[in-house]
Amino acid sequence: MQYLKIEPQMQRSASDSGPLCGLPEVVSCSVNKTRGMFEFQFDPQSAGSYLHLSKNNSKVTKGKMQKCHSLPDLITAKPKTNSSNAYTILGNCAISEGKHYWEIQTGDGSFTMGVAYRSVRRDKDIGWTKKSWGLGKQKWIPSILHDSVFKALAQGEQTEVRISACPERIGVHLDYDLGSVTFTDPATQEVIHTFNVKFEEPVVPAFSLYKGSLSICSD
What SMART domains does the database record attribute to this sequence (predicted)? Predict the structure, then answer.
């Protein structure tokens, strides 16, 4: 796996306070830092009440609200209209060093995907807190010609991003030591967006799903 060399675009520091997700210790992952996919699963204990997982926890689908017995009251309580904590889920493997890469099959849904600290606030979507960074796609945002519209979300700020075509998969290149998170179209290697972050805690893959499904790609 070749990792991209990206010039810094945006400096982000990290400090936040607020309700925590109350996750257990995530599993330790042994990963080849120079090639291959970063292996993780969706963590069912972090799943919002509208999210349904496949048996092997490799696919998450937006569905009807369900009771989440394993989650704290912040998440299990009946959400208010458009409450965001019901749509967020984290990966079960933390990263604290090295270079890592994973791909997500996005389909035709609406989502935000990126990385977050394990202590991220759960009453906001990914990218709308100082402890998470994400790339968002919302199906109801109109396209202009053949462009695809995304939102780069960090620390509660958003930046519009346009690329030539909407990819079927999105690749995430994380260099923890350098402090960069780059999103690409794996089919063309087109760079969608890069965040430059001074990480202060281990991070996990993080997602907010509003419509459709997301699947972790294994090849």
Answer: SPRY
